[in-house]
């Protein structure tokens, strides 16, 4: 499949050629993470059936789980009503989506009584043992 496929033209890419992507766990509907994709990343995601993102810090494609083994198998891809946000419904292998070793990247909750952010989800696996 070409990165110039007609269906890719429906997506409203930002000025950097990127679109925000939300990864949501199929079944639980937990929001696992937020990332970015360019045309090639979205095309590869469709081709592979696994999430491929664009790493803004590394300036390259990033196949989720390429280092950690925590691959996201894509069950469904949706585009929002404004056509500028992609939602991936994924099966998170190993149950860990976050580089901190947690199930979700959204593990910090604002506690108004404490007036600060609190970690509310435990580390499932030490990141030092995931990333070599």
Sum up the structure in keywords.
132 residues; mainly beta; Ubiquitin-like (UB roll); four-stranded mixed beta sheet; two-stranded antiparallel sheet; 34% strand
How would you portray this structure in words?
This protein has a single domain, classed as Ubiquitin-like (UB roll), CATH 3.10.20.810. The radius of gyration is 16 Å and the shape is globular. It is mainly beta and 132 residues long. The protein has a 4-stranded mixed β-sheet, with helices on one face. Strands 3-4 form a two-stranded antiparallel sheet. Strands 7-8 form a two-stranded antiparallel sheet. It is built from 2 helices and 8 strands; from the N terminus they run ββαββββββα. A hairpin with a 5-residue loop joins β1 and β2. The longest helix is centred in the N-terminal third of the chain and has 10 residues.
| Total discrete domains | 1
Strand order of the largest sheet: 2-1-6-5
Strand content: 25-35%
CATH topology type: Ubiquitin-like (UB roll)
Secondary-structure element pattern, one letter each: EEHEEEEEEH
- Biggest pleated sheet: 4 strands, mixed
Tell me, briefly, the overall form. globular
Regarding CATH, which class?
Alpha Beta
Give the fraction of residues assigned to helices.
10-25%
Mean pLDDT: 94
């Amino acid at each position: 499949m070409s990165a110039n496929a007609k269906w890719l033209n429906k997506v409203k890419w930002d000025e950097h050629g990127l679109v925000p992507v939300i990864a949501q766990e199929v079944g639980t509907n937990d929001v696992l993470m937020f990332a970015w994709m360019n045309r090639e990343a979205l095309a590869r995601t469709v081709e592979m059936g696994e999430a491929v993102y664009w790493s803004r810090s590394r300036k390259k494609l990033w196949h989720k789980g390429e280092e950690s083994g925590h691959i996201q198998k894509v069950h469904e891809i949706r585009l929002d009503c404004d056509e500028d946000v992609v939602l991936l419904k994924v099966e998170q292998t190993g149950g860990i989506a976050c580089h901190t070793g947690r199930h979700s990247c959204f593990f910090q909750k604002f506690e108004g009584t404490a007036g600060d952010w609190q970690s509310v989800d435990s580390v499932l696996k030490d990141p030092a043992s995931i990333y070599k």
